[in-house]
């Protein structure tokens, strides 16, 4: 039964016709006559996931394009140029153009669902849920677009003109917030199957958006709603292996899983990210390209307390070759790989069953801690309580018992925010969040952090990806002058 949602989504895509026809043919199956019943409505919504889960988007490429920018990882091979922070080369421009294409494919499918489902005769509560789910997913995609490209075309209908100008960032965020308001109101409190968003996922997502926009009180209050509901809790950890209850290939969900993208070891639907974070032929994943790696000289790595169980869980410098049994030591200048996601039973590149968390309860706690402190001009007891839950779990001690050896205390507002951001870096390592965390600190702070960590000077043009050439060539309201700087 594991990962039901991805199977439905994969099947559903074959049922989702995207061609724009003016007439309704009666002798063939088309978009105009397909959506007839509740099953078709579910297919329309589930088809959105297929585009989001693709290898070229959340399935791998989007994560690598984020992680190679962080202050704890470098890109390797064709991703190495990202870690020079001078803008993208042709290969990586092609990759982000692929991400753009998958984003708008997902948006098109969301728009089709939002247009077709209302006319279907079905249970009204189920209909409302599916429409809210489509809005949640559309908001997720626009959130990636606006943070990756800045102003982008807003498309909210499936058959409108292709000529759509780039909308201001504020307008894109308005659409995201409008969609999430509907999702928050109409999504259920619990998912029908693991992997479906709930009202709590919408609230956590809203808190994250408010955090990105520096709307501290709104972020604080929305995260607090999730915390006060007591629906979620951190998975207790006493040993390094206990983290597998969260990230393991056989874990269906957990007490802290608010929303995640589901993958499966069966049917070629695995999480291929593992292929790129591991060395070749490890016990963690059959192939391996070592596409991103960490160095001891990076401050986040150098200063990581060995007593923090996440360090051993995340990093390895040696591994056992699954074929020869030999112990392999990683190169001196590329000494650490990341092993948060591993599937010892995987037999192929596309057969790893791990899921990708999008929002966990740790998100709610750390959003609350940062936002509450920022809103109040400094940390109060409740902000410390939130971040210290995450820290205690990381050190394998009781989450709810104050621990002088682990807890943060007595910090200024800036020192507390820095500590929370560091906690986010460790807690969400290689989950695709750190680069966006650095970007929301502002250009000067981001540049200073990367310079201190890696000795690299970040070009401002590196902060936004280029608008794809095919969009410029085929969109009459975007021309070469509208391209992001540097491209």
Automatic annotation (TrEMBL):
Subcellular location per the Swiss-Prot or TrEMBL entry: Cell outer membrane
Record Gene3D superfamilies: 1.25.40.390
Record keywords? Cell outer membrane, Membrane, Signal
Every copy of the RagB/SusD domain together lies at 315-487
Where does this chain mainly localize? Answer: membrane
Which protein family is named in the record? Belongs to the SusD family.
The protein depicted here goes by the name: RagB/SusD family nutrient uptake outer membrane protein
Lineage per the UniProt record: Bacteria, Pseudomonadati, Bacteroidota, Cytophagia, Cytophagales
């Amino acid at each position: 039964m594991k990962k039901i949602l991805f199977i439905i989504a994969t099947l559903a895509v074959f049922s989702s016709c995207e061609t724009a026809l003016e007439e309704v043919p009666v002798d063939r199956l088309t978009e105009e006559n397909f959506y007839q019943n509740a099953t078709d409505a579910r297919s329309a919504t589930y088809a959105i996931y297929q585009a989001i889960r693709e290898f070229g988007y959340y399935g791998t490429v989007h994560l690598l394009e984020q992680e190679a920018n962080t202050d704890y990882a470098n890109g390797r091979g064709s991703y190495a140029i990202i870690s020079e922070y001078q803008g993208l080369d042709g290969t990586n421009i092609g990759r982000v153009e692929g991400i753009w294409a998958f984003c708008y494919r997902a948006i098109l499918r969301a728009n089709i669902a939002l247009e077709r489902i209302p006319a279907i005769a079905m249970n009204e509560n189920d209909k409302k849920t599916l429409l809210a789910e489509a809005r949640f997913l559309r908001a997720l995609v626009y959130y990636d677009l606006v943070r990756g490209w800045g102003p982008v075309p807003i498309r909210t209908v499936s058959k409108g003109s292709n000529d759509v100008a780039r909308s201001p960032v504020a307008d894109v965020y308005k659409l995201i917030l409008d969609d999430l308001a509907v999702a928050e109101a109409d999504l259920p409190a619990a998912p029908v199957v693991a992997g479906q968003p709930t009202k709590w996922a919408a609230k956590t997502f809203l808190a994250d958006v408010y955090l990105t926009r520096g709307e501290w009180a709104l972020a604080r209050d929305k995260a607090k709603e999730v915390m006060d509901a007591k629906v979620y809790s951190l998975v207790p950890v006493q040993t390094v292996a206990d983290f597998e209850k969260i990230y393991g290939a056989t874990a269906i969900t957990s007490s802290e899983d608010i929303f995640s993208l589901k993958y499966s070891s069966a049917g070629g639907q695995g999480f291929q990210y593992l292929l790129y974070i591991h060395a070749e032929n490890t016990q963690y994943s059959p192939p391996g390209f070592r596409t991103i790696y960490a160095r001891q000289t990076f401050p986040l790595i150098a200063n990581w307390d060995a007593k923090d169980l996440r360090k051993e869980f995340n990093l390895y410098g040696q591994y056992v070759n699954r074929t020869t049994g030999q112990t392999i030591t990683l190169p001196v200048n590329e000494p650490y790989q990341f092993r948060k996601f591993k599937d010892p039973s995987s037999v192929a590149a596309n057969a790893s069953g791990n899921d990708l968390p999008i929002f966990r309860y740790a998100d709610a706690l750390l959003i609350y801690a940062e936002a509450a402190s920022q809103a109040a001009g400094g940390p109060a007891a409740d902000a410390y309580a939130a971040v210290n839950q995450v820290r205690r779990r990381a050190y394998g001690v009781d989450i709810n018992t104050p621990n002088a050896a682990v807890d943060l205390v007595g910090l200024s507002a800036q020192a507390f925010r820095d500590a929370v951001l560091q906690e986010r870096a460790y807690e969400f390592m290689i989950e695709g969040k750190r680069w966006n965390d650095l970007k929301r600190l502002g250009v000067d702070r981001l540049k200073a952090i990367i310079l201190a960590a890696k000795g690299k000077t970040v070009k401002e043009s590196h902060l936004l990806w280029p608008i794809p050439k095919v969009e410029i060539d085929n969109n009459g309201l975007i021309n070469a002058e509208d391209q992001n700087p540097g491209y």
